[in-house]
Every structure is written in structure tokens, then in C-alpha cells.
Excinuclease ABC subunit C (Streptococcus pneumoniae), 133 residues
Amino acid sequence: RSYVRGIHDTKTEALVSEIVDFEFIVTESNIEALLLEINLIKENKPKYNIMLKDDKSYPFIKITNERYPRLIITRQVKKDGGLYFGPYPDVGAANEIKRLLDRIFPFRKCTNPPSKVCFYYHIGQCMAHTICK
């Protein structure tokens, strides 16, 4: 709708002038729509879409499948028993959500079990109490 109404910049006018045909695909969710868009852009390499054209994969937030899980950001989704959430449009958005989740849920912050109680355990932001004791 935004392409057929209003005043547009030169790039958008050029894009609209080249439209011959279009189709729309109904998806079940926003995430499914984003994944479909990413795949179609990688497949068709449209001239005017530069944001999703690069070959970078999109970030996900992962809850690791460890005894005391950690919350991490990754660009690779693996079948490793972890829970993956995303994709996010950029790493900044993923970091912002991770920061919020870290404050709400006491996921383990340390990558290697410390030899003594970690700082996050003392402030109630780490549930790995048996590792940290």
C-alpha cells in the first residue's frame, strides 16, 4: 500500500515504475513472514532491496541445553537441544531483548564455572548456585 500512495523518493519511484506483476503470500506469523522474505530475497536478489541482500545470517537468542542454561546470541541454529528465538532483524535488537531477559530471568552468565561464587549469584541474577558455591 505504501508504494502506491503518497510522495516517494527517486529510488522508490524507479522501483514502482518497474513493477510488472506482484503476488502476496499469507503466512501464519510475523516470524514465518520474515523467514520467507529472507529466503525470497536470497533466491531472487532484487535490485532495490539492500537491507536483506547481504549473506549475513540473522541473530537468534538461544537458551543453551546445559544443566544451568545460559542465554546467548548466535547466528547458527543447530539441533543441539537448545531453545532458539528469532530471527531478529539485527544484532542490536537481539542484544536489547537479551539484556531485558537477563534482568528478568536468572540465567547463568559465566561461560566457564568459576572457582568461587560469581558476582551475578550475589545480586540474584544467576541460578547456577551449585556451580558458583
The mean pLDDT is 80.
